[in-house]
Specification:
The chain contains 14 helices and 2 strands. By secondary structure, it is an all-alpha fold. Helix 13 links the parallel strand 1 and strand 2.
Length: 315
């Protein structure tokens, strides 16, 4: 509720809550199937749910490819090539269908928003990577650490280990090539799957003492391995609590500030144009409120609503 943060995502009314749910279901059902030994039959219900999750994940946002590729790769490693092909095809149905229609209408295969935002995203420098990963700087290493601590007992193909692996892979891939920030909506699905996989994994330890015993196996042989393990886990836990706490507070504060800014920057401008230039041609760089409140003919400089600008960005 607070760390995702679900409240602000719901207020925005966009697709990010559905994205988080679809990726979470995709990983859950995918891990259950991948964990089965190759010679065992697949449960029909789980297969259906996995294919439906793949379809909806691919239809909601294109970042789903970052989740589909590792799932298909792991299925291939388990000698389930047909299942990997089905998952890939189901996830590609909606993008291919939309791309075909869009290409017929505009000559382009990708949506205006993908083309336009790809042209204005800042370079993914190290500073950008650090500044834009609030709540993820400790979460992603924590996922890797818990996976390592459990590896001696659960190995790689255990379902909960697979959840950790998939969450880590998609988080690193997203942070490397896709945007984060913007009221924390782009990376909220990463927080969802990472926290869920951590909760599932930590529940398997059954007690804090079991965690210390697992951690001690990976520390240097000395008279105080448990103390070192405790210090390491406490440091990671404090960092995780600090970053996720900041994220929860921002999730409460930022929607209030953003709503006020949207009123001043968008609604007020839309009211002005609807009264002074209603029906005229206007050049703008944010079309949402203006298109809703006025009848002006808009040329969108960003390219989300004007094909000429999108073609210029694309070319």
């Amino acid at each position: 509720m607070f760390f995702t943060p679900l409240a602000s995502l719901t207020m925005m009314g966009m697709e990010h809550v559905a994205q988080a749910l679809s990726i979470l279901l995709l990983f859950t059902f995918g891990a259950q199937i991948i964990a089965l030994e190759p010679e065992l039959p697949l449960p029909r219900r789980t297969v259906v749910f996995l294919l439906l999750s793949a379809f909806f994940a691919g239809a909601i946002r294109y970042e789903a490819v970052l989740a589909i590729v590792p799932i298909c790769f792991l299925l291939c490693l388990r000698r389930r090539l047909g299942m990997a092909l089905l998952v890939g095809l189901c996830s590609a149905i909606a993008p291919i269908a939309f791309g075909s229609y869009f290409h017929h209408e505009s000559g382009l295969w990708l949506p205006f928003s993908v083309i336009a935002k790809a042209g204005i995203q800042p370079a993914h420098t190290i500073r950008y990577f650090i500044d834009k990963t609030i709540g993820l700087r400790t979460l992603v290493p924590a996922v890797a650490l818990v996976w390592l601590l459990r590896f001696h007992t659960y190995r790689f193909w255990h379902a909960s280990q697979l959840l950790l692996s998939l969450s880590f892979c998609i988080a690193v891939a997203h942070l490397a090539i896709a945007p984060v920030g913007w009221i924390m909506r782009y990376e909220s699905y990463l927080v969802t799957v990472c926290l869920f996989s951590l909760c599932v994994a930590v529940a398997g330890f059954r007690s804090p003492r079991a965690i210390m015993e697992y951690a001690g196996r990976y520390m240097a042989q000395s008279s105080r391995p448990r103390r070192y393990a405790t210090a390491l886990l406490a440091l990671v836990g404090l960092g995780l609590a600090y970053n996720m706490g900041r994220r929860a507070i921002r999730g409460i504060v930022e929607p209030i500030r953003a709503s006020h800014d949207r009123f001043l920057e968008h609604v007020q401008m839309a009211r002005f144009l609807s009264g002074a230039y209603d029906g005229d041609t206007v050049i703008v760089n944010d079309i949402g409120a203006i298109a809703f409140y006025s009848h002006a003919h808009l040329l969108d400089l960003i390219g989300l609503g004007s094909m000429e600008q999108t073609r210029a960005i694309h070319d």
